[in-house]
Structures are given as structure tokens and as C-alpha cells.
Amino acid sequence: MAALKRIIDLSKSLKTVATTSRPGCLQSSKKTYFTYVDEPSMPIPDKQPCWLKTADEAIEKAELDSEQAVFVQGAAATPVELLRAMTDYGVRCDVRNVRLYHMHLEGPAPYAKPENAKHFRSISFFIGGNVRPAVQAGHADCIPIFLHEIPRVFDEGYVKPDISLIHVSPPDDKGFCSLGTSVDCVRAAASKSKYIVALVNKHMPRTFGDAIIHVSHLDFAVEHHVQLPVHPVKTPSKEEQQIGKYIAENLVGDGATLQMGIGSIPDAVLSLLGNHKDLGIHSEMFSDGVVDLVNKGCITNNRKTMHKGRIVGSFCVGSQKLYDFMHNNPFIEMLVVDYVNNPKIVAKQPNMTAINSCIEVDITGQICSDSIGTKMYSGFGGQLDFITGAAISDDHCGKPIIALQSVTSKGVSKIQPVLKLGAGVVTNRAVVRFVVTEHGIASLFGKNLQQRAYELIQVAHPDHREALEKSAFERLHVMPAP
What is the DSSP string of 335-350? Predict the structure, then answer.
């Protein structure tokens, strides 16, 4: 009873304290005991955001300053207009060394221009194409990390954001907004931030699960109604279509739970699953191909033992068709990435089939996915999370798959005797099970180095097989053999 009385007294005393004197925003700044409960879906009594007319006003009110840490929501939910306003304000006011923490971002990246390097330093958990040149030039940086561990960076105080820039749907009649297409690590970062600045957009799909955030948690809000960034669906090449056929016909069974990212190879696989039954989705991200399979009745999720009957994801990028499919759809649960990508959770999914790609693979099965030699290209992403989860699956039916075209656009083999100097091994040779190219499937589990080299050379481009055999002999001192 004494402890309860102290909490009640603390609540009463805090309700009388306004922590700032910003004109017109006193209601927003009013702090109560409940403010310090870092659960975004819990309404904070007597608190509303300070609604502003422009993103420029919001950045100014949030008092962006030198040496601050700013978290930015990513993927299709990238708050592009807030980033534009932040960059303009930072240059105009000459703020220095503002660190931006984010997963991959969409849209233009003025904050990453060389001339703005003294103002902002982008730090990626997964490098997107718009900041890749800055990372490679040293004007930006990245953090090598498992996708499922990114929330720990905020939960355990490795990074303490001063401001979070997020992108949400408008509040409903009970005051609840949705993080929409990108839940991933947003809850962890936003709940640890001093201020949350939100772009409120009627085009943001309203999604469920961990996506819900009550409007009272927003400190500053700006209505800005624009369409989300889209990734147009490209027709798979002949080679990608063949890779998809190998996987669909040989490695995906009825009732399988699928994880796959965005791109032509995942789209090719999905396009060839139209005769499969009772498929499930448990994936950090998914794209348009899922919509077609749902409409055909192929994806039911009814063989799942967890989240039965529902698609599970954490973030998405796709076309408007995907966003329309996601909006107000209780068939989809968007959950935090430390749950979705936890290898222990992945391992519990029935017939877990994880399909990922890479930059290159050596003849022993080492997978490089985040760099081209010493040049950082992307990041760990969810590859090892899901490859590991599928490899240690509870039902021993998991299929960890690496899929790639056998050569680059310049005809260079992606299967190499050794990885390039400085190449990052994202997925180690012990956990790799299947490597698929347009020339077939290499099955690696239980194989020694001699056998692995043979399997991988058989799926390399025919123009490179003789050279690979010679290099394999020089490396292993034995000819590759089945």
C-alpha cells in the first residue's frame, strides 16, 4: 500500500509540472506519471500532440541541435518531408554532427550529400542505395548487426535518441495511429526518445499487431498527405524465372512457411507457387507476390502453430497494390523485428523455408551478402536470422536457401574459389543448406569441402566451371568430386 501511495503522489505532482514553455504547445509538453510508461499503445491522459502546419515548424519546435541523435523510421514509411525539413534547418542553423540512426531509407537523401557531412552523419543498420555512396566515401557509416538485435541498441541504451522522426496513419476515433508499413525497430527507438515528431498521412496503411501507437505519445505532428514510395514490380529475367522454378518445384512444399525479401528472384518464386496449398508467411518483409497468392487461396497460414491464419511481417516496400492490401486488413500482423526475426521463433514455424540472396559465394559455401570486397553495400538484414532459424527448425523440415544468378551483369562468376579480399561473411558455411542458381540446386548439408566444391561448381555458369575446378584443386589439393 505504501508503494502504491508513492506512485499516486508522484502522478499527482508530475501532473502539475510543465517541462517547457513553448507557446501553443503547453498541452503537448504536459508531463504526467504515465508519460514515463514507454508503451506506445497506452494512452497518456490529458496529453495531445502539438499540431503544426509544416514539417519545418515541427523540426524547429523539436529543437534539433548539434551532437544530437535522431532516429528515422524507414522503408516505405520513410518520413521524406521531415528529412527534407531537418536537412534545411540543420544547414540554415549550422548544427553540427547530428547522428541519424535508421534502417534503409527511401527517397532522396540530402542529409547524406558531401557538402552536408559536417551537419549530419547517417548511420545505417542496413544500407540503402540513397546513402551507399556516402558510406563508401566515409561521409556516413553503418552498424553491422542482426536485424533481430537492432531494438536492443535502443532498449539497452547504446543509442539514446533525442528525436524520433516517424510516419503514421491519422488517429482513429479513439486516438490510435498506426505505424503502417514499418514496425521493425520503431517502437524501441520512439519509446526511448525525448521527442517524437510524426508525419501524419492518410495514405499510410492502417495495420495491426505492434503497429499501434496512441496519438498522445506524439509530441509534434504534421499532416502531410502524399503517396508512399513504391518499388515497381519488374518482370523476372529468364535466369531468375529458372531459379524460381527450381525452388518452387523442388524446395517449397504444401504447408510451408515462407520468408523472402523483395526483388525479382522472390517474385519469381512466388509467381510459380499458384498450385501450392496452405502456405504461410512469417517474414521480416514481404511484397506484391504475396497478394496474388492470397487472392488465389494458396496462402492460408492455417498450418501454423503460432499466429495461425495470419501473415506475419515487420516492414514492407512494394506497389500501391500491396499498400491497399495491407490497409485495415486483420489477416496481417505487423510485429516488432526482435520477435519476427528471432531465430528461436523462426525455428518454431512449420516447414520454415527461408529464401535469401547474396553478392557472392565461395566453393566451401561461405556467403558474402553485405559488401563487395571492402566496399560496404547493404547489411546483415534478416538473412542469418532466418537461415539459422530454418536450419535449427523444431520439426527438422526447415530449408535455408541462398538464391542467386550465377554471373554478374558483366559476366563475372558469383561462385568464386575464395571471396574477394575484405568481403564480409554474413552466412557461414556451416549453416548453409541449399544454393540455387539458374543451373540447378547445390545441396551442401553433410558434405565435406571436396563435395561442396563439386556441388557449387555444378551450379556455376558453364563458362567458369573449368577455371573453378582448377582453382578448387589449388585450394583444397584435391579435385572436386560428388
Answer: --HHHHT-HHHHTTST
